[in-house]
Design a protein that fits this description.
Layout lengths: L2 H4 L15 H13 L9 H10 L2 H11 L4 H5 L4 H18 L5 H11 L6 E7 L5 E7 L14 H12 L8 E5 L5 H9 L4 E6 L2 H13 L18 E6 L7 H7 L3 E5 L5 H16 L8 E7 L3 H13 L3 E5 L15 E7 L1
Parallel strand pairs: 3-4, 3-6, 4-5, 6-7
Antiparallel strand pairs: 1-2, 7-9, 8-9
Helix pairs in contact: 3-4, 6-7, 8-9, 12-13
Length: 345
């Protein structure tokens, strides 16, 4: 099977112009590789041009150093299949432009071919600070009856938006609904200095995976004595939150100044439950103020999204679409229609 076609099942990635800068080329490869970006989105033309115009060995060595030989890949690797197809594509393009083989490439491929594929893999998202958000995700999009074991586009968009507006979260208590594998919250905790952050979800398997990802990134759970420099003094909790059963008193106890959620508007059967929860949250007061609520949604089904807005209108919750992020930090499909809205009474 053609490598490019086989990788179409992986995460979509942005096409980044390298502008002729060699460092941009290496960074683009690194960002896309660690996020398991779609193979066809890599800047192959610039890569092949670099191989033809100079000694190929330093270019290939730097690509390997930034990807399969990087310490993060050793510690939290992408899937075996992904690494195999990535290296095969590198080798194919190298052989098409350069006659001299490079042993390091074939050694790296041999190592991957000898590895066994598991049910989970790692995606690693590079932050502007140079730090990584490392996530253990399910290889399957739907696993154990839930979609919460993979990172979705609206979470990446919301994280980018938060990185541009850290003042929204600095020194504030944040509650996230439907945290999934935790990308948005971990990025926010590492970059936006909240006072406290509560990750929440309802599926037991998602909660277990979420807690593992929080700990994988060095964030200290409240009451834990274990932390590292990434915890940044943020008080972190992982909570099971049943949208239908949670009481206003329980939500009030969370003392959230800011509430966020991403990709929670996907099923018409849970819309009314979600709207009821948002109504309870907007009735809570923290220091005489109601929480700020931000929802990021990929609009896959306009009818479901319209139903969500209609149900909000029915109970007097107003919506305001706000500008999304202006800088591309994470690789995902920019063609998807994603909207961030602010809710208020």
């Amino acid at each position: 099977m053609n490598n490019t076609k086989e990788l179409e099942v992986e995460t979509e990635s942005i096409s980044v112009s390298c502008g002729g800068d060699e460092n941009d080329l290496f960074t683009t490869f690194q960002v896309s590789f660690f996020a398991m970006g779609r193979l066809g989105s890599f800047p192959w033309s610039e890569f092949e041009g670099k191989l033809k115009s100079s000694d190929s060995s330093p270019v290939l060595q730097e690509i390997l150093k930034k990807t399969v030989c990087h310490p993060v890949c050793r510690r939290n690797p992408p899937s075996v299949k992904y690494r195999r197809l990535f290296l095969q594509e590198i080798i194919k393009r190298h052989e098409a432009t350069v006659t001299e083989p490079m042993d390091e490439l074939y050694d790296a491929l041999a190592e991957v071919l000898g590895a066994e594929e598991g049910k989970v893999c790692h995606k690693n998202y590079l932050l502007p600070s140079g730090d990584f958000v490392s996530l253990t995700e399910s290889v399957a999009v739907i696993s154990e009856g839930t979609t919460g074991l993979v990172t979705w586009e609206a979470a990446l968009c919301l994280a980018e938006w938060a990185l541009e507006l850290p003042q929204v979260f600095k020194d504030r208590s944040v509650l996230e609904l439907g945290s999934g594998v935790g990308l948005t919250g971990i990025a926010l905790c590492k970059s936006c200095s909240p006072k406290s952050y509560t990750f929440s979800d309802c599926h037991p398997t998602v909660l277990q995976q979420l807690q593992r990802n929080v700990e994988l990134n060095g964030l200290a759970l409240r009451g834990s004595s274990v932390a590292d420099s990434n915890s940044a003094g943020v008080g972190v909790a992982v909570e099971g939150l049943d949208w239908a059963a949670v009481s206003e008193e329980q939500l009030q106890d969370l003392q959230a100044d800011v509430v966020i959620a991403s990709d929670v508007v996907y099923d018409p059967e849970i819309v009314c439950c979600l709207v009821g929860l948002l109504s309870k949250l907007l009735s809570c007061t923290v220091k005489d103020s109601i929480p700020e609520v931000y929802i990021s949604s990929t609009i896959r089904n306009p009818e479901t999204y319209s139903l969500f807005k209609t149900e909000l209108d029915k109970i007097g919750i107003r919506q305001q679409a706000i500008p999304g992020p202006t800088k591309q930090v994470f690789p995902y499909n920019r063609a998807s229609k994603i909207e961030i809205m602010k809710l208020y009474l």
